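call fold(seq) -> C-alpha cells
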Amino acid sequence: MKKRFKKLILKKGGENMYRRKGFTLIELLIAIAVISILIGIALPRFKGMQQEGNIAKAKGELRTIQTGLESYYMHNSSAYPAALSSLTSQTPNVVGSSLPTDPFNPGSDYGYDLSGDESYYVVYSIGTGGNGSATVNNSGVVTETNGSSCIYVTNGSSIDSAP
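ret:
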C-alpha cells in the first residue's frame, strides 16, 4: 500500500497558499549581522596571535643563526663571516642549506652587521614595525638605527637605546 503525501495547504482570505519552508529576509539579515559582529571581534585577536608567532619564529631563527656564526668563528681562525650566506656552506653546517627568511619581511634575509674591527656582530629582524635595523660598534654596543621594533641577537653585551 502506497502512502501519498499531501502538501499542506493553508487558506488565507479564501485563497489557497502552499506552506513555505525557509527563512525570511529579516531572519537572514539578522544572522548575517551576528556573524559579522563575531568576525569583527575575532579578527583582531587572530592578527595579534599571528604577530606573536612571528616574533617567536624570528627569535628562534636568530638563535640558530647565532649558533652558526659562533660555529663559523671557531672553525675559521677566530673570524666571523663577511656575509651570512657563508654559513650555508660551512662544515659543520648548523643553519642548513639555506638561510631562514625574516617573517616580518617575507622573501628577505635577516640583517647582519659586523663592527669595524670585525670582533662583534649583530643579526636582526626588521620587527613588528617593519622598519627596524641595527648596527654594532667596536665596543659591542648595538644601536637601533631605524625604528625601535628591531629584534636581534649579538655577541656584544651592551644595548644602546634608539635615538
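The chain has one domain: 22-160.
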